[in-house]
Amino acid sequence: MPERRFLRSYLFAPGSDEHKLRKAVASGSDAVVFDLEDSVAPHEKEQARETVSRVVHSLAETAGTEIHIRVNRAGGVVDRSDIAAAVVPGVTGVRLPKVDDVADIEDVDGMIGELEAERGISEGTLRLYPTIESPAGVLASADLGKASDRIAALVFGPADFAAAIGVQDPSFEATLFARSMIVSASSAAGIGRPIDGAFLDIEDLDGLRLHCERVRQLGFEGKSAIHPRQLPVIHEAFRPTMEEIERARLVMAAVAEERTIGMFSGVYVDPPVIAQARAVLELLARIESKG
Predict the structure, then answer these.
(1) pLDDT tens digits, 138-187
(2) Per-residue b/e over 72-98, b at no fewer than 16 CB within 10 Å?
């Protein structure tokens, strides 16, 4: 499979609105998600597929961002017409909603593989982003993360999950267990760290910042967005702090002096601490390489 890029932000845009699709691509988001699901009315689904295909065809070579597509499920089955619209040059990710069974992923994996072969697209070009939105999905997350080599990362859907467990507010406390499970499952599966769902109050940027910082500390790598104004907050929140960077550099300075266990400049150094420091500096380098 092609190497997965580091992505902090995933900006949604309704597939039925060409202006918003083009605006999303120019927003500076690390990835855009052209939505064929919740933001598109039932009578506009076919038109949305056509609009998405047209925009992808016109922008794919100059987009400067990854283009993903969120598909529909009808009666528990992924819409094959949506998959057919998604497997085209320029699209690199498919976001699957409401996944709670390995068969959900295996079915889509097979469809995508067939279409890649038919359309001359390199095998494995399209990566999968299964969204976990139910208690069953959370409990199955260890298996879901290993269901396909195409999986780039698991995504958590807090709003649907909160509704499923009977709470009105998808607060951090109400979803902490689910998020922690998904982080552990992702690590065990050897896939990318998970992506958090959208923060729905676009006016509350302070609340968004706090939320991003909390989920990053849990082990999430990025977050979905529903408005461009959320992007700067998300990008900054998923960047290592100055304190983390300085500590990591001190640790690696100790390694350079072959001092790999014990205190160094006020920082305790041992193999797990060294691994964490390397991860922080690697993450920083990947962010800075984006320019």
Answers:
(1) 999 999 999 999 999 999 999 999 999 998 777 788 899 999 999 999 99
(2) beeeeebbeebbbbbbbebbbbbbbbb
Phi/psi of residue 206, each to 5°? -65, -40
DSSP H/E element including 2: none
Distance CA 215, CA 195 (A): 9
- pLDDT score of 290: 65
Quote the CA–CA distance of 190 and 184 in Å, as a whole number. 10
Q: How far apart are the first and last CA of the chain?
A: 25
Distances (CA, A) of 245 to 19, 202, 223, 232, 279: 39, 30, 21, 20, 10
- Per the DSSP assignment, residues forming a β-bridge with 261 are none
The pTM of this model reads 0.87
Instruction: Kindly state the greatest CA–CA separation across the chain.
Output: 66
Q: Domains of the chain, with CATH numbers? A: 9-237 (3.20.20.60), 242-288 (no CATH)
Give the alpha-carbon dihedral of 55, 191, 131, 122, to 10 degrees: 30
Q: Which tokens is 250 given?
A: 């001190």
Residues 95-153: tens digit of each pLDDT: 999 999 999 999 999 999 999 999 999 999 999 999 999 999 999 999 999 999 999 99
Q: Specify the amino acid at residue 228.
A: P
